[in-house]
Amino acid sequence: MRQRASMVRRVVGLGALAGVALTAWLGLVATPPAEFFGNLVRLLYVHPSMAWVAFLAFGVTTLASALYLWPRTRRPEWDLLAAASAEAGVVFTGLTLVTGSIWGRPTWGVWWTWDALLTATAVLFLLYLGYLALRRIPMDEERRAKRSAIWALIAFIDVPIVNQSVYWWHTLHQRPTLTVGPTNAVEVHGIMAVALAVSFVSFTLVWIWMVWARFDLARRQRVLEEAEVEQALAERLEAVEAGS
Question: Into how many domains does the chain fold?
Fold first, then answer.
């Protein structure tokens, strides 16, 4: 069973790698420059998909945290899954901020501006960095898991704020690329839409592989730590019995 899971994870990893390579080829070679943005439009083949994966990751963290807090479904695996997904989410949020900044410099003339969407995304990044920092504080394992889960539920409040900020505040950042307007018209067509779709699937596979690998590693570490504790207790007990 474990070998089959390992094989499936390997297939997911290879699929993610192939998808990212295909995204790069589509984005850099197959698609033409945009009429208005020129070659800068190629950033759109990675930037929105990274933001999507960040939202997905934090959504899974929130769901797993809620399942941990609920007494009937409380299991350590939910806590490990929440942490693994949060780590991936922080990585993709950081990449979203970096690619957004690269887009902003030639488009807006600045690397960074306190636009509503950018600010809310930066706050999201800091909130989940705080979540990961909380998990590093030495304390009882169950207490740490509960506090981390509560933090995760609170932090997720910022996700819909990020998503809706371009509609609530009409600031510098444009609305999503795949906007369905009053005429139901989609702004991206043809090979550009294909490249964007491949990008979304590919980075989602990358997230699945990352979370799966990190979760499996954390679970192995937990089993090893429990075995070490049991061995230490057994050795201590033997020493006490030998002394008596």
Answer: 1
